[in-house]
Amino acid sequence: MGGVQSFREMCDRTKNTNIRLSLPAVCVVWEIAMIILFGVFIRYNWESDAHWAESKHNLSDIENDFYYRYPSFQDVHVMIFVGFGFLMTFLKRYSFGGVGFNFLIAAFGIQWALLMQGWFGSLDYSDGKIKVGVENFINADFCVAGCLIAYGALLGKVSPVQLLVLTLFGVTLYAVEEHIIIKIIHARDAGGSMVIHTFGGYYGLAISWMLYRPNLDQSSRLQGSKYHSDVFAMIGTLFLWMFWPSFNSAIAGHGDGQHRAFINTYLSLAATVLTTFALSSLFQKHGKLDMVHIQNSTLAGGVAVGTAAEFMLTPYGSLIVGFCCGVLSTLGYVFITPFLEKHMKIQDTCGIHNLHAMPGFLGGVVGAITAAAASDTVYSHEGLVNTFDFKDEFKDMVPTVQGGHQAGALCVALIFGIGGGILVGAVLRLPIWGDPADDNCFDDEAYWEVPDDEENIIPNIQYNNHMQNKDV
Amino acid sequence: MGGVQSFREMCDRTKNTNIRLSLPAVCVVWEIAMIILFGVFIRYNWESDAHWAESKHNLSDIENDFYYRYPSFQDVHVMIFVGFGFLMTFLKRYSFGGVGFNFLIAAFGIQWALLMQGWFGSLDYSDGKIKVGVENFINADFCVAGCLIAYGALLGKVSPVQLLVLTLFGVTLYAVEEHIIIKIIHARDAGGSMVIHTFGGYYGLAISWMLYRPNLDQSSRLQGSKYHSDVFAMIGTLFLWMFWPSFNSAIAGHGDGQHRAFINTYLSLAATVLTTFALSSLFQKHGKLDMVHIQNSTLAGGVAVGTAAEFMLTPYGSLIVGFCCGVLSTLGYVFITPFLEKHMKIQDTCGIHNLHAMPGFLGGVVGAITAAAASDTVYSHEGLVNTFDFKDEFKDMVPTVQGGHQAGALCVALIFGIGGGILVGAVLRLPIWGDPADDNCFDDEAYWEVPDDEENIIPNIQYNNHMQNKDV
Amino acid sequence: MGGVQSFREMCDRTKNTNIRLSLPAVCVVWEIAMIILFGVFIRYNWESDAHWAESKHNLSDIENDFYYRYPSFQDVHVMIFVGFGFLMTFLKRYSFGGVGFNFLIAAFGIQWALLMQGWFGSLDYSDGKIKVGVENFINADFCVAGCLIAYGALLGKVSPVQLLVLTLFGVTLYAVEEHIIIKIIHARDAGGSMVIHTFGGYYGLAISWMLYRPNLDQSSRLQGSKYHSDVFAMIGTLFLWMFWPSFNSAIAGHGDGQHRAFINTYLSLAATVLTTFALSSLFQKHGKLDMVHIQNSTLAGGVAVGTAAEFMLTPYGSLIVGFCCGVLSTLGYVFITPFLEKHMKIQDTCGIHNLHAMPGFLGGVVGAITAAAASDTVYSHEGLVNTFDFKDEFKDMVPTVQGGHQAGALCVALIFGIGGGILVGAVLRLPIWGDPADDNCFDDEAYWEVPDDEENIIPNIQYNNHMQNKDV
Q1: A129, A204, A415, B379: which could form a disulfide with B383 (CB 3.0–4.6 Å)?
Q2: Residue B334: which of B272, B278, B271, B279 has the closest Cα?
């Protein structure tokens, strides 16, 4: 800890938020790198290549994977850009940064994710090319989601250059972690409770711990919402909530797999809403509801049902998961977030520990239990093979062993999240990234041309009044 | 009327909006009840069960009902949560309540609707279980829409506990009414003009009549919009308007049925926009447009074409329906809503009488006429059987008789709406639900932690100015 | 130029924005005309007619074109109404006009487009009827997009009656232009770089040139954004950005065509975001980002990849197009828009020259080059025939010649845009349309009942302070 502390001090120099050279340089150089790497590696797969007309044989055009997955892809896309983006507009003077930087890092991350995930998963060894179709693009959105979750912990305290670095490393770590979990350990994780949420949550929390700002209360006047910024954030909340069933079913198996993943997620989310409202009212003076809980905790059910979404979790099982998650997540906002800030030096702006990290971990556990309890009777033999992919080298796998693999996968996600976050956090402490000083945090003025509002007139009026009083 | 009056007075005690015990208790207890009932009754249907892999035989995965209906389901879902939710953010200080309570009651309602509608419609008598798939979830959203419409009349005047009670009874009434109309009377109502809008509209108006507040003008300073709350409401309007074709086609027949329902709704809505703008300008001083009309009346065409959407209404028929509805609905806002409030003791915050009740009734009439006019020539024999479901016990039905059944169904919707609303309104007058006093109506402060805005500084400034004047 | 100038002066009389007669008259009369024309001409096509049940033979219901295109249609629909609508809410006091008039003219335009495009493209010569299905409705939305682009240049400076006239002529011109480009010249333009964006962009710019207001700086205090109006505009930006892949793939060929068009558009847009952020930061003092660039230039990549979207552009080719477009469009906002206003008398409120006109032209060029470079090796023979529709009278066409045709089509789009805009602009200068005076521009007060906000209190406070100072 002492070493970390001295490293921290070494990095704390005078802050300069001018990113006129660094941001353009990083954006342009990295985009040129993307073009070169795409030129060398990325090609259309057989379902998006013009040869499809000849190679589809007796398939109908409607059986192109595009028609199975494109509606879900678009829903996921809305979650990434509008859902995450608007959820982060809740601060009174950081709406531009919330939705704008979310846009920037997601647009970069999906390109890098296509490459990283492609090298691990879609490489055609016959010609050394990555062949991409709609499923790769869904996976790229998933990968970026991990980095956007991490952004939630750091909202208002970092520069866009730092966010691009966070995304570069985050996507890389994600692709390795995903490969280990899905391909090597052979765990199933259709909705990414472990791969996306546990990893992304702890990745962000570890970075936030490394970037701890002891005097952040200097900008606390901006660390709250205002009436309309809370309404904007509800746009994010609702699009996340409505489309989460598409998120968890987007890459599930054709037919019953997607159908069931949607049902489980829908029900879990519905139950979460009720317990979130209940707990929010219970822990406030006069029973008033807190928008922070409604905006965030209502979504925890979707996270926690991610791994088990395509399993035969049963409808009431989904409700139980959602019920518990609403309670857990709201309690997290009331008790755990202040504790983490005070005693653990983890400042978590959006409360991702309550919305992603904890529910993701819970989702991994639920997935392991549900997998271990699977049986031929419940799934049918063919259903079991389809759902858990008991094929090829894993054709002798049994559900109980699968449950153990799921638990192992959860540990891998945790290790990558915390370990990766500490390493990347160390890099982000270097005093070259243009991050804001404590009293510039949560303020769009640092990185944006902000229009003069009527609201800005008010301090002048107060000033005038003050002057008048003096004059009188 | 005297009895009703004295009952009203009995119920009017001092108001206390503290719901710290009642809201959590209702949410938690009801959600536990849902879990138990789902455990006993709800199971996956054959298209969402893992046995699908074995039982689908020579069907392609793409012929799973999921792929026919999921895109429409998601559109409907957006209408319920973002459409209805944001349409109700138009009040200057009730945006949290508009979008937040909409969220709460919809999330509860869809669970209860799955049970209620399941008992009537999807019960598998071989094992006593309700088997659910994507169509059940669309129907659950439809059912909840009825209750959300009713909320529109009561917006700003009731507590969340009252809304949950309204939803519990509303869903129950809806399920019975729907069963009578669809199964017993064998009426067709793909877009729910009768089942959803007529029922929901009169249900809400009857409750509002029972909860009449003679001194509501005490809070009238809050009973208007502000610039940005009107823009937020346009988000709701547009998502409702754009996705209404999905609403009316979501449970229509596969193939031409869904295709035609979308076309009819789209055209009706387009025509409504033009007559709404025309009438809005005509009835304002200086020809200025009124946002209330644009936000609401533009949607009436979608309501009125609901029943006939899957019939061969013809494209120009749809335009005519939309044309009339824009006129009717805008005139409703100009003349009928003030009349209802002044002379009928019905206070209708969102004007649901003009957007849902009247157009829904009109839609039922249009449906009856269109059904009665159907013929083999226009539909083809197989088309007629498919569209009107002239099968099994109804295989000898003829279009003219079907028209009569449609008219009968409309009466059932009316009776359930008005009768149910009076009964539920009586329950909601009991002085135990934490509803706000007249001068707390339309104010989020009653149930929400509201952030201090710069705007709240303004009254202080005025106060200071006042003080200064005195001092001077 | 002298003639144009004197015509301009002739038309500049005292302005009266009272549209209480003209707007209702135009809306009602035109809607009645629509009903009559629809009654005479428009019928369901075979996939939306009840005869489908008999005529589909051994097609599965899922092979109805509805299921290929409806999800894309809905995405396009969202772009037209929410995307374009909210993108135009960025002005501080013109959000009602931005989203409201967009709604009005789109709702009228789609009806007129169904007729105009139907007469040219879907007329069944056996019975003289236009047979419509989902593809016609996508094309109607496309057609309207051209007029909404033109509205972007005129935002805040015209009356709704002028906008309806602009739409009437715009749709007519579009339908003729599209027929020449697609049917006669046999160019391909799936995403409409030429047909929609080049035409719409120059159409709007030419009208704006005709309606030049030399003293517009009188209303310049309103010609900017405020904090929350910029956040509202981001809703428009993001829905356009996310759904642009659906826009460009909506009417592409079934199977690989739609799949590939989505991939190319997605990648181009992702690259554009990075170069837009880079250039925006580079050209501002202190490297601060400008919301105008983020809201608009990030979308240029989708425009420029429109024509070539369904070709084998390759993934890295798409990135290169997007990269260049982000640079070009942002430079346009920094240098070209002020130049056009100062030296060319073109006032372009939303900067459509940078977002639509230039990128659309570039897209036409990219399309011509990509088409000319096509080969059997890359596409397969059947793929080439499918992609470029080398059938019937064009069965002997070769890619190099097709490239020439594409270039010719681009010229047609330019000529129709500029020529049509000058003609329509002359009509719109007539002093009968109720357009606002210079100092009423960019102000919703001219055409809308605007609620009294707390914000409106501020000037009064200032006024009071002023009074007090005098008193003292």
Answers
A1: B379
A2: B279
Distance from CA of C346 to the nearest CA of A (A): 24
Q: Which residue of B lies nearest to C463 if distances are taken between CA atoms?
A: B465
Rg of chain C taking only CA atoms, in angstroms: 23
B-facing residues of C in 19-78 (CB < 8 A) are 19-21, 23-25, 27-28, 30-32, 34-36, 38-39, 42-44, 47-54, 56, 60-62, 64-67, 70-71, 74, 77-78
Q: What does the alpha-carbon distance between residue C188 and residue C394 come to, in Å, rounded to a whole number? A: 13
User: Which residue blocks in B122-159 are alpha helix, DSSP H?
Assistant: 134-154
Spell out the long-range contacts of C10-16 with Cβ–Cβ below 8 A and sequence spacing 24 or more: C11/C429, C11/C430, C11/C431, C12/C431, C13/C431, C14/C437, C15/C435, C15/C436, C15/C437, C15/C440, C16/C434
Q: Give strand ranges (E) for A211-338.
A: none
Residue B312's alpha-carbon distances to A203, A456, B381, C230, in angstroms, are 57, 58, 13, 45
Q: State pLDDT tens for residues A314-328.
A: 999 999 999 999 999
CA C395 to chain centre: 33
**Domain covering A66-102+153-161+176-450: architecture:** Orthogonal Bundle (1.10)
d(CA B463, CA B457) in angstroms, rounded, equals 10
Per residue in C152-189, pLDDT (tens digit) is 999 999 999 999 999 999 999 999 999 999 999 999 99
pLDDT on residue C219: 66
Q: How many CB atoms lie within 10 A of CB B376?
A: 12
Average confidence (pLDDT) over A358-384 = 94
Kindly tell me if the per-residue pLDDT of C469 is higher than 50: no
Contacts of B66 in chain A (CB under 8 A): 255, 258-259, 262
d(CA A98, CA A95): 5
Cα C112 from Cα C108, distance rounded (Å):
7
Rounded Cα distance between A441 and C312, Å, is: 46
In order, the DSSP letters of A432-465 are: TS-PPPGGGTT-GGGTB-PPPPGGGHHHHHHHHH
- Chain B from 169 to 198: CB within 8 A of any A CB: none
CA separation for the pair A184, B106 (Å, rounded) = 42
Query: What dihedral do alpha carbons B381, B385, B386, B392 form, nearest 10°?
Result: -150
Closest residue to B51, CB basis, from A60, A266, A383 = A383
- Asked if C435 and C155 count as a contact pair (C-beta separation under 8 A), the reply is no
By DSSP bridging, strand B129-132 and strand C129-132 are unpaired
How is chain C split into domains, by residue range?
A: 66-102+153-161+176-450
Q: Are B18 and A286 in contact (CB under 8 A)?
A: yes
* Cβ pair C327, C275 in contact under 8 A: yes
CA distances from A292 to A145, A278, B99 (A): 20, 14, 14
What's the rounded Cα separation, in Å, for the pair A296 and A294? 6
List helix spans (H) across C373-456: 376-379, 381-388, 399-428
- Chain C residue at shortest CA distance from A164: C274
Tokens of residue B428, six digits: 């909601």
Nearest to B171 by CA among B144, B148, B210: B144
Global pTM?
Answer: 0.93
**Does B277 contact chain A (CB < 8 Å)?**
no
> Residue C17's pLDDT band (boundaries 50, 70, 90)?
confident
Subunits next to C (3 or more Cβ pairs <8 Å) are: A, B
Pairing state between β B123-124 and B129-132? antiparallel
Of C261, C326, C250, C258, the residue nearest C293 (C-alpha):
C326
Phi-psi region of A64 (alpha: psi -120 to 50; beta: other; left: phi over 0): beta
